[in-house]
Amino acid sequence: MELEDVKQKIRRKNQILFSRESASLQELLQLIRQQKHRTLVMWALACAEEPARILNKRHPDHKEPEQAILLCKEWAKGKIKMPEAKRALLKVHALAKKLADPADIALCHAVGQACATVHVETHAIGLPIYELTAIVRSLGWENCETAVKGKIAYYMERLQVYEKLVSSVAFEWADFLMDDSRPNQEQLLADKKQRTQP
């Protein structure tokens, strides 16, 4: 089973149950490494809306996740500068420290990582790492496989949609996101790791 590494993390009492090395995320990572930065931004911010909705339903007094997504969309458009958006996304991570439920904590970090994708592509994988952790925490190991696989398939499908959309429709983007000469940072990370392996 592809989720055997997740089971091992549960046994070791790890808080985060997925990583870049997770077998179940390798196909998604390959697709992420092929994307333009703005495609990943569009995908991550759109996918973060579901964890934000869940958090809003469970914690209606806390608007930090929704606010972070809103401000990071403005950052991606060039309407605001990084410091303002960064403060908002750091508040989402800070909210996680106030919550007790491990699934809610993971959802906060999923939103924070998605928002940070505007800064650099390597944060994009953080969304699935944390959101899938939340799914396992919510459903339990015995009942999570279908939901986890379904969510990964959803990520793949959405990323392919946004890949086509970002190339075919004119959107408003900050100048730094329009620079396609920069290599994908997630790909660079993978290349570096491959070079350093014996």
Give a structural overview.
This protein has about 200 residues and is mostly helical. The chain is about 65% helix and about 0% strand. It is built from ten helices and no strands. Helix 6 packs antiparallel against helix 7 and helix 7 packs antiparallel against helix 8.
Can you summarize this structure?
With 198 residues, the protein is an all-alpha fold.
Features:
mainly alpha, single chain, 198 residues
Shape: globular
Question: Helix- and strand-based class?
Answer: mainly alpha
Order of helices and strands: HHHHHHHHHH
- The value of Rg in angstroms is 16 Å
State the helix count. Answer: 10
Uncertain runs:
none
How much helix is in the residues? 55-70%
Mean pLDDT across the residues is 95
The strand count comes to: 0
Oligomer: single chain
**Strand content of the residues, in percent?**
under 5%
Report the sheet with the most strands, covering strand number, pairing sense and barrel closure: none
- End-to-end C-alpha gap: 27 Å
Tell me the number of structural domains. Answer: 1
Compile the SSE list and pairings.
Elements: H1 4-11, H2 26-32, H3 37-47, H4 49-58, H5 64-77, H6 82-98, H7 102-116, H8 126-139, H9 145-168, H10 185-196
Helix pairs in contact: 2-9, 3-5, 3-7, 3-9, 4-7, 5-6, 5-7, 6-7, 7-8, 8-9
